[in-house]
Amino acid sequence: MEGLRFVVDQRGVWERYAKLERNFKRKIAAEERASGISPDKTELDEAIENIMERREGAEEEIAQRAESTAVVMEKERETAESVRKRSMERLAVTRERENQRNAKKKRNSGEEALDFMKGKWRMELELRRKELEVRKKEHHAKERKADQEMELRKRELELKEREQQARERKDEKLLEILTQQQHQQQVILFQIQQGNQALLSLVNSLKEKLN
User: Fold this and answer.
1) Per-domain residue ranges for the chain?
2) Which of 106, 105, 102 is CA-nearest to residue 119?
3) CA distance from start to end of the chain
4) Cα–Cα distance for residue pair 204/50, rounded to 1 Å
5) Is the dihedral of CA 94, 98, 101, 103 positive or negative?
6) Is the pTM for the entire model greater than 0.85?
7) Alpha-carbon span 123 to 89, nearest angstrom
8) CB of 32 within 8 A of CB of 38?
9) 2: phi then psi, degrees, rounded to nearest 5
10) DSSP state of 197
């Protein structure tokens, strides 16, 4: 459309769609109750129904991804633990070898002692570096899991809120219908009373004429 221009944000689009979805659900429910058969759907109804199906599919996919992520995290943790154990075992073997060498050969040179300490320090430093990398991966994995769980909770809360709003609107509609029926009954009762008064007047008039 060349004559109209709209500026909207993501929230505005979502709120507009949510309103269309609620109206669509109320319309379908009302038509099914009224006719007992599936109503004819317009092009807009079909579009909204298609979006609802896609959204439900997306939510299921997010849940499956969250479950897969948890499995991957567990495997990464097990792998990290295995790497740490192997590193510790290699370090223990290396230390044992160094101890055996020290038992067989006395080192009287301060330079040899210094080289040994440097080697030991390098191995411990490498082990710590690997442990930090493993912890960093575990931390990132936990953050991803927490973000996904938070997103799922958010969607669940939004769904519950929409369902609550739908129930409230349903109750309001029922109250409106009951009020209308009560009003109609009062109108009919008033009409009956008017008819009875008119009939009574007619009977009295006939009596007067007969007398």
Assistant:
1) 10-169
2) 102
3) 82
4) 69
5) negative
6) no
7) 12
8) yes
9) -80, -25
10) H
pLDDT tens sequence for the chain (211 residues): 567 676 778 888 888 888 888 888 888 787 777 766 666 677 877 888 888 888 888 888 888 887 878 777 777 778 878 777 887 878 878 887 777 776 666 555 566 677 778 888 888 888 888 888 888 888 888 888 888 888 888 888 888 888 888 788 887 788 888 888 888 888 888 888 888 888 888 877 777 777 6
Quote the distance between the C-alpha of residue 145 and its chain's center: 14
Task: Please give the Cα distance from 16 to 87 (Å, whole number).
Answer: 58
Q: What is the pLDDT of residue 37?
A: 60
Residue in the structure block whose two tokens are 């948890």: 70
Asked if residues 52 and 20 have their Cβ atoms less than 8 Å apart, the reply is no
**What is the structure's pLDDT at 211?**
65
Q: Which long-range contacts (CB under 8 A, 24 or more apart) does 205-208 make?
A: none
**Residue in this structure with the two tokens 């807009």, named with its chain if needed:** 44
In whole angstroms, give the CA distance from residue 123 to residue 69. 33
**Alpha-carbon span 186 to 191, nearest angstrom:** 9
CB 166 within 8 A of CB 70: no
Task: Dig out the tokens for 192 from the structure.
Answer: 């009956």
| Residue 86 contacts residue 134 (beta carbons within 8 Å) | no
> Would you state the structure tokens that stand for residue 199, as one six-digit string?
């009939």
